[in-house]
Amino acid sequence: MTVREIVKRFTFIEILQGMSLTLRRLFSKAVTIQYPKERRPIAPGFRGQHALAKNKEGQAKCVGCGLCAAICPSQCIHITRAKGQVEKYEIDILRCIFCGFCVEACPYGAVVLTENYEYSEYYKERLYMTKEKLLSTWDKHMPGNKGDEYFKRFWCPMSADFETPPGQAVFKGKKQ
Predict the structure, then answer these.
(1) What is the pLDDT of residues 140-153, one digit of tens each?
(2) Which string of b and e fits 134-159 if b means at least 16 CB within 10 Å?
(3) SS (H, E, C) the chain
(4) pLDDT value at residue 147
């Protein structure tokens, strides 16, 4: 046993360091929140529960082209068409990885990821989203112009996004 270990053992330095840390944290603000009474603000563009978008007449925008199902890496989207109409549109939420490829691939802006993250269930079958559930999710979480604003801000590339930022070094002779 070294002298250093003997000093540590009899002076309780480590215990005093631990007690000082405890006292400092006792009077600082807590980092936890009292959920569900308190809620954290949702980040812009959050990828939550799926929904099928509706047009201004209240009809589903989806035409059943199947691009969302084709690009989905987890293969959780199933679409059935009959007589030129979308008969079934189903998403298995438990398989989804929320990558957002379905939203990017849709040429009609028919699939969205809403800000809702509170949709836990006791039964697995309830998390299998049908067309009716997806349309009601749109009504519940994207009222008014919120859906248009969602696509404008997060899923439509703006021409300003592809411009050269001010102060960026450019090749000599390049015209802006």
Answers:
(1) 998 888 888 888 88
(2) bbebbeebbeeeebeebeeeebeeee
(3) CCHHHHHHHHHCHHHHHHHHHHHHHHCCCCCCCCCCCCCCCCCCCCCCCEEECECCCCCECCCCCCHHHHHCCCCCEEEEEECCEEEEEEEECCCCCCCCHHHHHCCCCCEEECCCCCCCCCCHHHHEECHHHHHHHHHHHCCCCHHHHHHHHHHCCCHHHHCCCCCCCCCCCCCC
(4) 83
Give the angle 88-89-94 at the CA atoms, nearest 5°: 130
Residues 6+ apart with CB under 8 A from 99: 73
Query: Going by C-beta distance under 8 Å and a sequence separation of 6 or more, which residues neighbour residue 80?
Result: 64, 86, 87, 88, 89
Residue whose C-alpha is closest to residue 100's, from 159, 43, 49: 49
